[in-house]
Amino acid sequence: MYVLGISGSPTDRSNTDRLVQAMMSSTGAEGQEFVKLSDIQVGPCRAHLKCTETNRCDIEDDFQELSRKVLQADALVLGTPTFYNGPTSFMRAFIERCYSLRHQRLLLRGKLCAIIVVGTSTEQAVADWMGKVMAAEGLEVLGSLAIKGSMCCMSCGHGKDCAYTIWNTYSKEMTGVDRGIKEAYLPYMEVLPGNIPYQKGSAEIKVSYRDATKERPVMQRVESLGKLMTTKHDERRKGLVRIG
Ligand SMILES: Cc1cc2nc3c(=O)[nH]c(=O)nc-3n(C[C@H](O)[C@H](O)[C@H](O)COP(=O)(O)O)c2cc1C
C-alpha cells in the first residue's frame, strides 16, 4: 500500500504533522510519503474550468506533481489545524485543486482516506466538513478525527491581560455551546477571578504547549484509524484476488 500524508499546518512544532505521520506509520504500509503543503506552492482554484475536459489543472505550480502522487496513492491521510473555523488556507487550496480530478472520470474514486483536524475549540465542525467534502470527491473516508491541540494563548505570554482569549471567545458562557475547552485545557491553565470576556482575559498559563502525541487516548484513536486503513486495503486486495 502507498500512503500519502498531506499536512496543512504551516508551523514546525506541529501537532498536525506529528499526528499525520503517526497515523501513516501505524498503517505499516511499505510505501509512505509525507508532504507539508507550506513547503511547496499550491495556490487556490481560479475556476478556469478547463479541467472539466482534461481532468488536469492548468495552473503551473506544485499541484502538478502533488496530484500525480495523489493519483498513485492507495490511501490519503489528510491533516490540518483549524484556522477561523475552517482548514488552513494551505489545505483549503489543496482541496479546491482536487476539483480538477473529479469531472467525468472521478479520479479519486475508491481511494481510502482518513482525516485529522487539530484545533482548540471548533475542530469537530472542520473534521465533519472535510469528511463530507472528501467523500463527495469519491474517496472512502474511514474516519475524521477532531483533536485538541495547543492554544496560541498558551505561548503568547499575555495570559493575564488580553482582550481576546480563546477560553472566553469559545466558552459555553459566550456561545451557548460546550466545545470542551474547560475540560481539555484545565491541566494547562487556570482562569482567574478577574477574567471579563472581551475586556480582560485573565488566566494563569501553566504549560506553554500541548503535545497531543503524548496523550494515550489520542494516539489510540490515531493508531486504530491507521490500522483500519490497512485492514480495508488488505480486504480489498483479497477481494480482487478472488475476482481475478
Ligand atoms: C490564525 C489562527 C486561527 C485559529 N482559529 C482557530 C479556530 O477558529 N478554531 C480553533 O479551534 N482553533 C483555532 N486556532 C488554533 C489552532 O487550530 C491550534 O493552535 C492548533 O493546535 C494548531 O495546530 P498545529 O499544532 O498542528 O499547528 C487558530 C490558530 C491560528 C494561528
Structural features, described:
The chain is an alpha/beta fold and 244 residues long. The chain folds into two domains: 183 residues, Flavodoxin domain (Rossmann fold), CATH 3.40.50.360; 59 residues, no CATH class. The strands form two sheets. Strands 1, 2, 3, 4, 5 and 6 form a six-stranded mixed sheet that branches. Strands 7-8 form a two-stranded antiparallel ribbon. The longest helix is centred in the C-terminal third of the chain and has 28 residues. The radius of gyration is 20 Å and the shape is globular. The two termini are 19 Å apart. The model has no long low-confidence stretch (mean pLDDT 95). The structure holds flavin mononucleotide. Flavin mononucleotide binds next to helix 1, strand 3 and strand 5.
Question: Which labels suit this protein?
Answer:
alpha/beta, Rossmann fold, two-stranded antiparallel ribbon, 8 strands, binds flavin mononucleotide
How are the elements arranged and paired?
Layout: E1 2-7, H1 15-27, E2 31-36, H2 51-54, H3 63-72, E3 75-83, E4 86-87, H4 89-97, E5 112-119, H5 123-136, E6 140-148, H6 166-169, H7 172-175, H8 181-185, E7 189-191, E8 203-205, H9 216-243
Parallel strand pairs: 1-2, 1-3, 3-5, 5-6
Antiparallel strand pairs: 3-4, 7-8
Helix pairs in contact: 1-9
Bound molecules: flavin mononucleotide.
